[in-house]
Design brief:
By secondary structure, the protein is of the alpha/beta class. It has two domains: 170 residues, 3-Layer(aba) Sandwich (Rossmann fold); 67 residues, no CATH class. It has nine helices and ten strands. The strands form two sheets. Strands 6-7-8-3-9-10 form a six-stranded mixed β-sheet, sandwiched between helices. It has a four-stranded antiparallel β-sheet with strand order 2-1-4-5, covered by helices on one side. Helix 6 links the parallel strand 7 and strand 8. Helix 3 crosses helix 4 and helix 3 packs parallel to helix 5. The longest helix is centred in the last third of the chain and has 18 residues. The protein is globular. The protein binds adenosine-5'-triphosphate.
């Protein structure tokens, strides 16, 4: 369980400056898939950085499985939007994936096994010897996902991870993520601008209002496994989309 309580983040030395995150509280259950929606600049990335322990919060607390988060927790992994900067260009795909495992104390043989399994899970078996710059954008993002999976995190934080790929690749990556989420039983916190993506992926969607606090929450009861065509045709999908549009706009949400 991840518990966020009354989180506040003010950048810079002036404590009276406008906060990027203010009064943010929510909880995510183990193995839950939660999407966070919010308009540009409302504090989503700041929130994720505070949750990951990469940026200290001004006040409030983040507790992961009973332990306060004061730095990056060992069983947490991240996938960011900008895959071109997250992979190391001088390392092969295989070495990029295995690299964080060294710091986790995983021995060489087990690291090799985890790497091959993750490559296979993201459909890149046989591409381990390539360099990131020899791959398409969608493939590079799959490498970033494979790296996170090989790490076997308990919780995965994702910051608009599919924002810079084309629509077709994006749908494929969404389905890949759902598949591995179920297979490995990971908890996922996924930030996106895209209402349809949030409804398609999530068990629950939280809408942030500036300065990031939870303005609305929608439980997504759509059946799993989800399907890009059939799920999006469900009346419940349309209803949730409307509800979340209204919530993002700050309009009253119909019951
Ligand atoms: N390092 C920083 N120093 C000062 N202010 C910052 C810093 N990072 C973000 N901010 C400010 O905090 C606010 C929230 O930014 P943040 O990047 O968290 O929003 P966001 O919702 O992720 O935006 P987007 O959807 O456009 O990526 C903005 O006003 C931004 O200018």
């Amino acid at each position: 369980m991840l518990e966020v309580s009354n989180l506040r983040k003010v950048y810079g030395p002036d404590p009276h400056a406008a906060p990027a995150v203010d009064g943010l509280s929510f909880a995510v259950a183990d193995q839950e898939f939660v999407c966070i929606l919010g308009s540009s600049g409302c504090g989503k990335t700041t929130m994720l950085r505070c949750l990951s322990g990469l940026t200290p919060a001004t006040s409030g607390s983040v507790v992961l499985r009973g332990k306060p988060v004061n730095g990056p927790p060992e069983d947490m992994a991240f996938v960011f939007q900008d895959y071109s900067r997250s992979l190391l260009p001088w390392m092969t795909v295989r070495r990029n994936i295995a690299f964080p495992l060294r710091y986790k104390g995983v021995d060489r043989r087990q690291a090799a096994e985890l790497t091959e399994e993750a490559l296979d899970a993201v459909g890149l078996a046989g591409r381990g010897d390539r360099y990131p710059w020899q791959l398409s954008g969608g493939m590079q993002q799959r490498v970033a996902i494979a790296r996170a999976l090989a790490y076997r995190p308990g919780i995965l934080l994702m910051d608009e991870p599919f924002a810079s790929v084309d629509a077709q690749t994006r749908s494929g990556l969404e389905d890949l993520l759902l598949n591995v989420w179920q297979r490995y039983g990971i908890t996922v916190l996924f930030v996106t601008h895209d209402i349809d993506e949030a409804v398609y992926l999530a068990d629950r969607v939280l809408v942030l209002r500036p300065p990031a606090n939870v303005g609305h929450e929608a439980v997504v009861g759509l059946p799993r496994p989800r399907n890009q065509v059939a799920t999006k045709r469900e009346p419940e999908f349309g209803r949730l989309r409307g509800e979340l549009y209204a919530a993002l706009d700050g309009r009253p949400v119909a019951a």
